[in-house]
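Q: Joint fold for the lines below.
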Amino acid sequence: MTEPRQVIIAGNWKMNSTPGGAGQLAADIAAATRVDSVSRVICPPYVCLAPVGAALGGTGVAVGAQNVHSESAGAFTGEVSAAMLVGLATWSIIGHSERRRDQGETDELVARKLVRCTENGLRAIMCVGEQLAERRSGKAEATVRGQLERMLAELSRLGAALPVDLVIAYEPVWAIGTGLTARGADAAAMAQLIRAVLGDAGAANAGADLPVLYGGSVTSATIDEFLAEPDIDGALVGGASLKVDEMAGIVARAGLTAAARAKSAGAAAR
Ligand code: PEP
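A: Joint structure:
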């Protein structure tokens, strides 16, 4: 039987929560989202990784970082390397649009971050997505293709391969934190494009097996449109990931998708 792709719900807490309160919030989210068929990940700020990790022990919810530095070590004051995260996190977001915007991160830099994740056993959620003007002018797909191709070119220059456990988050920049969402069909078309571009690069899991998440103002009320699309495998959730009830609703909906996909994979195998 061909295994269906994992359904993944990852929460990006951004610069919210404190070490004093983060563990309780994470524990509450874990208790409200007990759906084994959904891979759940919480990405708190660095300083909350330890208390969140302690609170999530035995819950099945994984801990992720929101970023890693592109170098292994050195004179980079205030930065955090992937190696420093070992034992604190098993996943990391890289290339989030807020970092591309605020820290000027390029696709080449994101590729180097991906290499650091791979070297240190962190599963990367790499973000791509277009600006509103690019969507309006019909350039959304070309933009995302360009981001992936520049990332791939840098990997090739470094002699590095795409990791087999890579996850891509398609996050239209204009939908992040705005209350606007993409149309499910547009997100699904982008997921197909992402699999095609990475599949053409010959990477081990980059074709049909590559999980592609949608991100951008996902809530328990908007998730349905995306999970109804067979090409979308879950969500990267920002603001709503800080709300226990919202996460409960989002993960419950994701559980329905995971169950339906497992059932149709089982039927196809008979
Ligand atoms: C994000 O931070 O990746 C995100 C999608 O944020 P929001 O859900 O708040 O739009």
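Q: Anything notable?
A: Strands lie at 7-12, 38-43, 62-65, 91-94, 123-128, 167-170, 212-215, 234-237. The pocket of phosphoenolpyruvate is lined by residues 12, 14, 171, 176-177, 215-218, 236-240 (CB under 6 Å).
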